[in-house]
Amino acid sequence: MWIYEKKLQYPVRVSTCNPMLAKFLIEQYGGADGELAAALRYLNQRYTIPDKVIGLLTDIGTEEFAHLEMIATMVYKLTKDATPEQMKAAGLGAHYANHEKALYYENAGGVPWTATYIQAKGDPIADLYEDIAAEEKARATYQWIINMSDDPDINDSLRFLREREIIHAQRFREAVEILKEEQGRKKIF
Amino acid sequence: MHTHHKSYQPYVSPFDPCKPMIEKTYSTPPHLYIGFQPPNLPQFTPMEALRAGTLWKAFYDPWYGPYEKKNWGVPS
Ligand SMILES: [Fe+2]
């Protein structure tokens, strides 16, 4: 069960009306390496992974939902006052036709989210390696979005999110080390 | 100390259609080098940590885009 705090993990401010940036950010909302995929991947893997790392998957999976909320806030702010004309010019004409200003779980190319983006192999090492890869890919996605964005406030929030991906990757790498440990041997870290 | 960026020079053809980018870079963040986190690493203050996205200075590796001034955020 979860307890909800009615605030964002990190403040989201948007300095310029730029619906095209919303189109790019949607990649982290409903894309293969986005926050929704991350949250669902980790929370689902918890049931068939050794006890020692279940808590880590719960913590990180939960935090991914906090990131999802930040991305949603950015997309909403960037599009809420855009005219249909501006949506069209930003490449969001197809989105507008189907969803108006509503958010939708899709990637930057408009492809809807699918469960095939995530895996649950039941093999702890295979699953954790997927998680590490997912974090590095999310980190890279944030880099490419920051590279295209000239909004200093959005970039500040995206920089925070990218740093979190680094920390998540670190913790998943540590989880692999924990599972590699020979049983009964004294730990030396 | 490891660098957090690496670079290489891809082959440039005399017939390349676009102005060649002589040097390509990629990110190699600090967590690639640390292994299991050792105890007693230096920490940010709580306020700095909230801005940085990490409590641990060793894992801090901010990314800046081409349109922004670098290092106006958390001291490193
Ligand atoms: Fe993450």
From TrEMBL, chain A:
SUPFAM superfamilies: Ferritin-like. It holds the Pfam family Mn_catalase. Transmembrane segments: none annotated. It comes from the Bacteria. Belongs to the manganese catalase family. This is Protein CotJC.
Automatic annotation (TrEMBL), chain B:
It comes from the Bacteria. InterPro entries: Spore_coat_CotJA. This is CotJA.
